[in-house]
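Troubleshooting entry. Yesterday's outputs looked truncated, so today I'm pasting the complete records for two proteins to confirm everything comes through intact. If either block looks cut off, that's the bug. Protein one:
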Amino acid sequence: MKTNRLLARAKSLKNKGDFEQARELYNKILDQSPQNPLAKKGLLAIDDRSDATPHVSRELELQLKSATTLVSNGQLYAAVNSLNKLASKYPDSATLFYTRGRCFQLTSKLDAAISDYNRAITLDQNYADAHADLGVTLNVLGQSEAAIESLQRALSIEANHVTALCGLYPLKQQPDSIPIAQIHKLYESSKLTNRERILVCYTLARAHNKLGEENVAFDYLLEANKLSKAEVGYKFYKSENTFSSIKKLFSVKHPILDVDDFDSLSKIRPIFIVGMPRSGTSLTEQILDSHSKVRGAGELDFLNQLAHIIMQEQQANLKRQYPKPLSKSSLRAIRTRYQGSLQALNYPENIIIDKMPLNFRWVGLILSAFPEAKIIHLKRDPVATCWSNFNNYFPVHGLGFTNNLNDLAKFYHLYADLMTFWHQRFPNKIYDLCYEDLTENQAQETKKLLAYCELEWEDACLNFHENTRRVVTASSNQVGQKMYQGSSKSWKEYEQQLQPLVKALNY
């Protein structure tokens, strides 16, 4: 049985393109069983993988590693663009289509993700990772039976596949459910990758929470977040420096594009939903997406990439006591590139929602380049917001501040201070929406929201839970349910453990 597990693991690593570790495992098997035919076949496949043109496979291997790095850094659209170029050149690479499927999954393009996962499985029936992530995606779409089937298929290939076991644990019901002891056994394994151990810790935290064992659950959460922070390498001072630079750049008055500056793409009207992650942004997007004239595009990284380019270009300028304002040409360039990215999404609606919460950092840039844009700022109880961030797993980098309670409190203060700054610089240009008010007075707050967005009333916005669109965020389950109250009080289960956070937030 041990040999079979090693073979499955080696094959999984080979499928991912991690040939060095796969070779190491195959050799370990052959040390124990020199005539093992599957280990020999696996090694032969690694040695001969480039066939008559070794540089081609090496190129693909390097390109896939580059794309995987982009995914890890949260640059999902850049990764998709890179993989699209490779897809026609390497139509038989299961790893390529699996990797692109992951990108599609993380950007809420679930049909495309399923298509790529199935393509990978067609190319390699024993691709455990593809079966597992297919199951996770199907579950988001509410297809639980098909999800269970895919997750079980992954486990039939690799008995201790972490994504499959952790995905299956909350889905299956007694008497066939995955026992918590099996997840604990995974935790005790010394062969888990850092990402796998993080996922196991989050699963155990949820399991012990359901058992009413808050102290045990909190310990697993602490470990998961500690591992995540180490993996990301987050440093608070970098956030502090970024926020300081933003405020300094926008401490001077910048030009605002007027009607004469609008390009031919201005028919696309963006709505930006901003705020702290886990503040109700997904719920708000789902409500607006339920309107016939609006399309929610999810968490787009377009503006963030453009903003970082601007900030890099402004480094010398920021050393001045009083920075020079941005030029109209720079603002036009941002507008044109951003609108072009929205147009490339090929949505039939001309009102498109960008629900990247951290775009709150770029409000000044938005209102300078897109004066017609609507900005909806979600506000939620600070302890509830920070707790929800700490209590959820974010598989993409960019949210490193969520993995430590002290970092979270300090980042929240940076966020609150910057939003005060934006309100002062751009009075009456930002719509504040309180999450708790929205959940307690749904109809009234929805009417006010639609009025701000200059949209006519549609009953579908009250019945947002019937919207067939699905999102891939930590809120994916909530947006498919009717409005409910009380989620901002869930942190009180851990009130004792969260006292340092409560004090740091001056709550």
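Protein two, checking that the full record survives here as well:
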Amino acid sequence: MLPCNVILREVAGGVEVSAIDPVASMQAIDNPALHAVAGQVRDLLAEAVAAI
């Protein structure tokens, strides 16, 4: 389930970028180590999207 999909969609006036929240995706899995990694991935995805 990691890495998460990133979606690019053309909208009026530009491009919309969205990504699935890895923390939300991992909630159903009982593995604290995986939850920590999902948090790191979420932070990296947020940085990447903000940099666009």
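Both blocks look complete. Sanity check on protein two: The mean pLDDT is 88.
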